[in-house]
Specification:
The chain has 250 residues and is α+β, with helices and mostly antiparallel strands. It has 5 helices and 10 strands; from the N terminus they run βαββαβββαβββααβ. It folds into 2 domains: 95 residues, Alpha-Beta Plaits (2-Layer Sandwich), CATH 3.30.70.580; 141 residues, Alpha-Beta Plaits (2-Layer Sandwich). The protein is 23% helix and 31% strand. Strands 1, 2, 3, 4, 5, 6, 7, 8, 9 and 10 form a 10-stranded mixed beta sheet that branches.
Length: 250
């Protein structure tokens, strides 16, 4: 029996999220279906670094699984990609030791949220960008980004439907943005994220960039553990799981 670590990308448009759900098409179910076929009907369960919601994309999601099959790694990648649907692609596969866990061995994750700044709806990017014609001040955005960096209790910036039990303290090492002629890309890197946390934080950052709220008011949200009427959850289409980071293993 060996344990394999797999890095994949997927277009979340036509999935009901990553995690298996009854009678719904999910990323996990499509991959496990292929692995079960490769194992002659024996069910193979995969374990990911975390779940993504319906409509959310992944540039580099990671999962692991155990298998008794002795297949060269290059052949594993080819076999999976031939059988998987076109909206999932295996980028890399490697053998890892028994202690590796895709979720619990991860030290940081990076998410990116893409915003198209346009007055005209772009039908070709509707599944991959949040679109708005609002204007945002870069200095206000920068100040608001700094307010989110560091260790905080992110209760105010997670969905009320979050199932997390215990502490909601997380550390964000990077909260920043890049701007091009017609696009804003928000970059959030941290040790963990709560349900809808990225989409809510970016919503608050946009409000700050319009001058609707200040960094001081963001600090009050942390303290009071509520964001009031601010920070409505943005749509999933602009969100990408960009990278999952692990410590170097010898």
């Amino acid at each position: 029996m060996q344990k394999l670590k797999c890095t994949i990308s997927y277009d979340g448009t036509n999935f009901s999220g990553y995690q298996i759900q009854p009678n719904k098409r999910t990323v996990q179910s499509e991959i496990e279906k292929v692995l079960t076929t490769m194992h002659k009907g024996d069910e193979i369960r995969i374990y990911s670094s975390g779940r993504t919601d319906a409509g959310v994309h992944a540039r580099a999601q990671v999962f692991h699984f155990e298998t008794p099959l002795d297949i060269p790694l290059s052949n594993w990648r080819k076999a999976l990609n031939v059988q998987l649907p076109d909206d999932i692609f295996v980028q890399h596969i490697e053998k890892v030791d028994k202690t590796f866990q895709a979720r619990f061995s991860a030290v940081q994750k990076e998410y990116r949220y893409f915003i198209l700044l346009t007055e005209d709806r772009n039908v070709f990017l509707r599944n991959y960008r949040y679109m708005t014609n609002d204007e945002y001040d870069d200095s206000l955005l920068k100040a608001a980004c700094r307010a989110f960096e560091g260790e905080h209790d992110f209760t105010a910036f997670s969905s009320a439907r979050s199932t997390v039990k215990g502490s909601k303290v997380r550390t964000l090492h990077t909260v920043d943005f890049e701007r091009s002629a017609n696009e804003l890309v928000f970059i959030l890197r941290g040790d963990g994220f709560l349900y809808h946390m990225v989409r809510i934080i970016v919503s608050v950052l946009l409000e700050a960039g319009r001058g609707d709220i200040t960094p001081a008011e963001i600090e009050e949200m942390f303290t009071n553990k509520t964001r009031g009427t601010f920070g409505k959850t943005l749509p999933p289409q602009g969100l990408f799981l960009w990278k999952v980071m692990y410590e170097e293993r010898e």
